[in-house]
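Homework help board

Subject: predicted structure for assignment chain

Our instructor gave us this sequence and asked us to write out the predicted structure in token form, then describe one feature. I got the tokens but I'm not sure how to describe them. Can anyone check?
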Amino acid sequence: MQGRAPEPGGVRTVDELGARLRALQVWSGLSYREIHRRLVRSRQERGIAELPAFNTTYRCLSPGRTRLDVELVVDIARAILGDESRAAEWRQAHQVVSGLAAEASVVQVGGRVESDGDAFVGRSSTVAAAAEALRTHRLICIDGMPGVGKTTLATRVAGQVQDVELEFFVNLRGFDPARPPADPAAVLDGFLRRLGVSGSRIHGLDLSARSALFNQLLDGRRAVVLLDNAASDDQVQPLTAPNALTLVTSRRRLKAHRIGLEVFEPAESAVLIRRAAGDKVDREPAAATRIAELVGHLPLALAVLAGRIKAQPEWTLGDHLERLQEHTARLRLDNGVAASLSLSYQALPPAARRMLRLLALHPGRDFDAYAGAALAGAPIDQAREELARLVRSNLLEEHGSGRYELHDLIRLLASDQARDEDPASVRRTAIDGLFDYYRKAVATAATVYAPQDRARIEMTQQPGLSELQFADREEARNWLEAERSNLIATALYAADHDRPEYATGISAMLMYYLGTASLFSGAEILHLTAIRCAESDQVRGRSYNSLGALYWRLGRYADGRAAYQQALDYARLAGNRVGEASGLSNVALGHYRLGDYEQAITSQREAFALFEAEGNLSGMTTTLAGEGWPQLRLGRPEIALELFEHGLAVSRKLGTDTFEEAFALNNVAAAHEALGRLDEARQGFEQALELSRRIAFVNCESDCLNCLGRLHLAAGRVGEAIEFHEQALDLAVRQGSRPFTIEVRNDYGHALTAAGRVAEAVEQHRTALEDAERIEDRHELRRAEAALAAIG
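My token output:
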């Protein structure tokens, strides 16, 4: 083997992935026979019964394949590389070419491992053995058949760990009937955010770097990680930190200390039935025993039956047994598991049955009562009653946070029933109701979260008020965070099921939230989906504009400029003059960041003329500022000041306390600073800062703080300068704006140098230099290089 092993990154088709896999085989020098031997041995060691024939492995490595089995691709990579994390890259590549990468990146990470508490039945010896194994090995895998109680046991064991400082929980969707397994990189994104790492930093890290940082941040801290429903070792490996206690559940045997979970012992089944039936068990012990036997002592089936027994107290256990036997015979099943679930479903009142069927249509993983009400087309109080009934029947799981989730087996049952009982028109109406609920709720939350975005949001959404209301920005942010995965999942579903207007609307309304919350992967998925399914040039242009804004925030200036150019082209095709002006102005931003200042000025002037002709005051202020900044970079502060003052005058025609005025005040102050008028500059920055804070305009607030830091440094007030730069850097990092973060780091470095804190200054300038190189910000790159050269 010579050189670096071929990697799967960047492949877009099955042919490309197959070619890259063949290149890996050639690089390894291993024969097909040896790869097959290693693959079989690996599967045997992991307890996987399915062993491929040699011809199957050979065909996977042969050209001309129209499809590739993901597990075989990953196992071949594992056999050659002997490295789980590198093998995981091949799963991700397969997801890309299979069109599943977007869905695999939609992951909901929880921060608390919740136990069933008093509802737990039996298994005391298994719990004790698992707890001891966790203390000894720090990584255990609880495996077993569906419905055997793996998650319940894992949460029980996790709950017994003492002095826990941090908890992480995620459903890896390894065997989800409708959605692909969760991408480990997306899971680590969620874990790292819970540890306080900014989205901008996470976005720049690959899978192995995220995994290393996760382990580093857990060092010296008592942490428990529960990885539920894992598909494979390569999905789990990047998420297992040696510094954490990790519990994994899976239907497969994985590479970890194994706790094999079987069905209940008869005595344990009897305890569960007694909890539901009371002293009926004493009067009818044979019936209780036979009920447990018919469902194979499977905990999920027993729990569902127990819910039915509670709901029908007038029935004897013999009645329940006879009904179960009849149902089992009719379904011609070898065991009563499916019969138990189906029978409990049939025992529900019609409204509850209908609710369960419609809940299974939800494209996301978990949901709240409002989503249930929307699917059922019912008032919220009625929906809560039906959801509570399903929870009591053990057909629905309720989390302490007021959210609900269907077990995979019950989701399958309910989905089958929905197809059998509900016409397609009824199912479409339910999904339309869900879309309508999310659309209105997103519009409401996004407007409270970002008041300055109100006009664009109101233009995007259809009329209608949300039943949900939010008291303040924090409450709106919390709702958006809780529903983020559902919103992206429903948008992906809508794009593939002839509802493009929902996908494009959600993309537009979430643009500001996803950007400022540094949820870059989700934003990119959403905006690309909107572009893919947009039905008009105007909407497609708007979606490209959202994508360009995302790339701009990430410092991907070339990509941003290309997206903005697409937005401009589509606006022209649609005859959208304001859209054309916005496109021109945005393209100019790309020219500006890439150092083409004259072209930026030309484009901004063209945009201004269009905005002025349309009477669009907001656009006029934006383009005046956009022309002023390249003038400053070209050493023409007098011209810049004139443009900025014009922009301030126009902004004040929009009303009081506007975002446009805050930016304009900041721009005028920057021109005064460039002209050496430091008192006027300070007054202007302070005015802009006060206004920004009053209207919660965090982007401008961080900019003002940084500028005031520069002025304090110029006046010799080094301590004050450092304080202002630290505040600015904190806000910039939290907002996820990589370009502005680079600028602040360079300014902060100068203040640290003046304070004699040279090592810290070097760290800031080096970080700025590396980031500036990465995003091709030539201006900040030169500043960082000059600062480091001056320090020596």
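Reply (TA_rk): Your tokens look well-formed. For the description, you could write something like this. Residues 266-346 form one domain. That's the kind of observation they're looking for.
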